[in-house]
Write a structure and sequence with these properties.
- By secondary structure, this protein is an all-alpha fold.
- Among the domains are: about 140-240, Alpha Horseshoe (Serine Threonine Protein Phosphatase 5, Tetratricopeptide repeat), CATH 1.25.40; about 265-335.
- About 80% of the residues lie in helices and about 0% in strands.
- The longest helix has about 40 residues, at about 300-335.
- Keywords: Glycosyltransferase, TPR repeat, Transferase.
- This is Tetratricopeptide repeat protein.
- InterPro entries: Glycosyltr_41/O-GlcNAc_trsf, TPR-like_helical_dom_sf, TPR_rpt.
Length: about 325
């Protein structure tokens, strides 16, 4: 094959891909460029004619952007209806089926999403976004083996995909394969070092394995990238607690409460740290804050009752001790 014909084949392949993805105008322009270079190219002439003869309005980038605006504004039913209408008007567009699947996943209509992704992949078997979304749908359904196959197929085609490594790690965590998950998260971080989510999930995996110091380092890395990453700070607090570092854990909970003053989990954690540090008055006050927000919190009730009982016991002990001291003083005076 000559270099000239190879170039035409490459451009034809790219034009077909653009058409499949819904960028019809770009595909038409590229077919026009091919015909300008190779006027006798029958494939380009045939494909361009087919695009030009399509009934109704042509599918454009604006169509996709309109649906995505609906999607991001939370108008999911409208986005679904719009995407479904475009599929009826423009058959054989894998990008449209993938887009509809993304909307269905957000609506938790997972079986319907998988059906749409299957159609997309029949039309374009190497559609990496569709494969990734299929893995996500399977993961949400708890079909971890199918999800794992999706991500492994992506990595076979592109071993340097940080998202595929991260998603594979999530599936492996769900399967209890913690060592494999750690390896996947580390591979993802090597490819994208500033992923706070990957550092966080790596920390959770180390925490599950009992490697607490390593988990703390991972959570700190995540917070160094995203300071307001509250789940990472909560996990860091729990890791400090498990090591008996109550002051450090308490500082974490205080930072969380600065952002979310009514976070009852953080309040309860702070109260536990205060109690374990022997700051009983402050702990009692914090437990009362928990009960004001969550009256049914049995943990706060139990610990507050224990502190109150301890105060009563101490008060009685102090009274008894004072009485004994007074009696001894009276005896001493009598002897003198």
């Amino acid at each position: 094959m000559t270099q000239r014909s190879f170039s035409a084949d490459q451009q034809l392949s790219q034009a077909k891909k653009l058409a499949r993805q819904g960028d019809i105008e770009a595909a038409k322009r590229l077919y026009g460029e091919i015909l300008a270079q190779f006027p006798q190219n029958k494939k380009a002439r045939k494909e361009l004619k087919a695009l030009q003869e399509r009934g109704g309005s042509q599918l454009s980038r604006e169509d996709f952007e309109r649906i995505m605006r609906l999607f991001h504004s939370g108008k999911l039913d409208a986005a679904q209806a719009d995407a479904s209408q475009l599929i009826r008007l423009h058959r054989g567009q894998p990008a449209l089926h993938n887009l509809l699947a993304v909307i269905l996943i957000r609506q938790n209509k997972l079986e319907a999403a998988i059906e749409q992704l299957g159609i997309a992949l029949q039309l374009q078997p190497d559609f990496s976004d569709a494969i990734n979304n299929l893995g996500s749908a399977y993961t949400k359904l708890g079909h971890t083996e199918q999800a794992q196959r999706c991500y492994l197929s992506l990595l076979q085609a592109e071993p340097r995909d940080p998202d595929a490594w991260f998603n594979l790690g999530n599936v492996q965590r769900k399967q209890g394969e913690l060592s494999d998950a750690i390896n996947s998260y580390q591979r993802s971080i090597q490819l994208r070092p500033l992923s706070a989510d990957a550092h966080y999930e790596l920390g959770r995996s180390h925490l599950d394995l009992g490697a607490i110091e390593q988990a703390i380092a991972n959570f700190q890395d995540a917070l160094g990238i995203r300071e307001n990453f509250l789940p990472a700070r909560k996990s860091l607090a729990k890791a400090y607690l498990s090591l008996g570092k109550y002051s450090a854990a308490g500082d974490c909970y205080k930072q969380i409460l600065q952002a979310q003053p009514e976070d009852t989990d953080a309040l309860l954690g702070l109260a536990d740290c205060q109690r374990l540090l022997g700051i009983y008055s402050a702990a009692a006050q914090t437990y009362r804050q928990v009960l004001a927000l969550a009256p049914d919190s049995s943990a706060a009730k139990e610990q507050l009752d224990a502190i109150e009982k301890r105060k009563d016991t101490k008060r009685r002990d102090d009274m008894t001790l004072n009485a004994i001291v007074k009696q001894l003083h009276q005896v001493k005076q009598a002897l003198d």
